[in-house]
Each structure stands twice: as structure tokens, then as C-alpha cells.
Amino acid sequence: MLQGSLVAIATPMHDDGSLDIQALRSLIDFHVAQNSDGIVVVGTTGESPTVDFDEHALLIKTTVEHSAGRIPVIAGTGANSTSEAIALTRKAKELGANASLLVAPYYNKPTQEGLFQHFRAIAEAVDIPQILYNVPGRTSCDLQNDTVLRLAAIKNIVGIKDATGNIERCTDLILRAPEDFAIYSGDDASSLALLLLGGHGVISVTANAAPKLMHEMCAAALEGNIKAARDINAKLFALHQKLFVEANPIPVKWVLQQMGLIKSGIRLPLVPLSSQYHDTLRSAMKQAAI
């Protein structure tokens, strides 16, 4: 079971929006050096809706090859088409990813039974560890705890990224889930609370900009060092909040550009961060000492 801070890595792009593979390699080295506990590539923060299949495969391939076993790689392979999700997940396994992350189907609003059948079909089609991803604020589709528990009985469905930020709901899941089922926060602002309640880690946007601090906060929480975890989280809290002043990954890509780690590229329909938020993000960066 992976634990700790798993970075939902941004996809570097040139100013014209084309993939910047060399910058991706540099980001991987950065996260290895800063002790991130895992990399999630081509997720929401990686702009998965705007990369085509070949680009998707290239990003996974590059991440697996360049990480070279130094850090676990989880490949985002979700889609609102079950057959497409199966194809992407097969490709991720072929390319050597350690696991896949599967977002609940967006836009088409399946029932709970439809969600169960969707994820079961992917699990049965591809023998790779699979992590469910519930983010109803983006998908208009909510994977309920009872459905998650049905899916947790399937051998290779090994965890969930819960981005609801609902601590009561996450606590219920922690109390009822099998011991070997990993529960990751998908909401940086509430991730410390989830860890202290028995969660296993966070799939983090903040970790793009402050990977060392996110790793240290998670490690302290998992070790039961509550004061240290709270102190680190206090430094990070402005980033947790302000990295969502506009749709993710707009703010975090701006921060990474300011840090000199990537260029300004982002793909339509997303556009660069509005200038009115520049000072807001600079203040959050200063609080986190980055």
C-alpha cells in the first residue's frame, strides 16, 4: 500500500501548448529529490481531458522510464467511456505503471449500479492495482460509500482518492473499509484531518509546489506526531486554499512557472492565471517559503 504524499503532477507544456517532455523529466527529478512518495501522472492536474491517446501514453511512458523505479508511478486512466478507460488502463499496464487512477465517469451521470459495473469491468479487464477517484465537484457524479465498499471486494481495486473534502463521509469509509484498502485525500485543505483519522495519504496539488513539506506533513501525521504535522500544515494552508482561486491546474501551473520549473503553456479551454490573483499566490508561496 502506498502511503504519504502522492503528487498529482502538472503536465509541462511549451508556450504553444505542446508537451514539454524535457521539463517533465526535470519535474520527476525534482520530486524524487524532494521526497514525494509517488507521482500521479495525467490526472486532472495533468490536464487529462485535453491530451489525446498518444500523448497520454507518452506522458505515462516518460514518467515510468525516467523515474526508473526511484518513485512509484500511478497513471490516470479514467474516462466517461468504459471501453476508453479499459484501453487507457491496458496501456498503462503495458508501459509499466505501478497502478492506475480511475475517475468516476463525468457528464453522463450513471447510477450507483452503473458506476459499480463500470469499475468492475475495468478491474476484470486489466490486472493492475486500481484506485477509484471520486470528485463530484468536477464530474457531477458521486461515487457513494456503499458502492465503494462493494468495489473494495474486487481484488485489484485497492483504494480511493476522495476529493469531496467531507470528513464525516471519509471517516465512515475508513471505519467500514477493509484494512488493506487505501483511502487517500483528494482535497489538500482537509488532508491532515483525514490522515489523523486513519487515512493513508493524499493525492496532492499542493505537492507540485511544496513536495518536501507535503511529504514531511504526511510522514508526521502517519507517525502520530500531531504537533509537527499541524505546524507544517499551517505553513501550507494558504497554498491549499489559493491554488484553487481558479480552476485547477491554472494556479499551480502559474506557481510552477514562477519557480522556474515549467513554461507558461496550458491548453484551452483553460487560460493562464488572471493577473488579479498573482499577488494572492505570491503571498501563499511566501508563507510556504517557496
Written account of the structure:
By secondary structure, the chain is an alpha/beta fold. The protein has one domain: TIM Barrel (Alpha-Beta Barrel), CATH 3.20.20.70. Helix content is 46%, strand content 13%. It contains 12 helices and 8 strands. It has an 8-stranded parallel barrel with strand order 1-2-3-4-5-6-7-8, surrounded by 5 helices. Helix 2 (53-67) packs parallel to helix 3 (82-95) and helix 3 packs parallel to helix 4 (112-125). The two termini are 30 Å apart. The model has no long low-confidence stretch (mean pLDDT 98).
Largest sheet: 8 strands, parallel, barrel
- Low-confidence stretches are none
Computed structural class: alpha/beta
By CATH's scheme, which homologous superfamily applies?
Aldolase class I
Individual helix count: 12
CATH topology: TIM Barrel
Distance N to C terminus: 30 Å
What overall geometry do the principal axes of the alpha carbons give? globular
Strand order of the largest sheet: 1-2-3-4-5-6-7-8
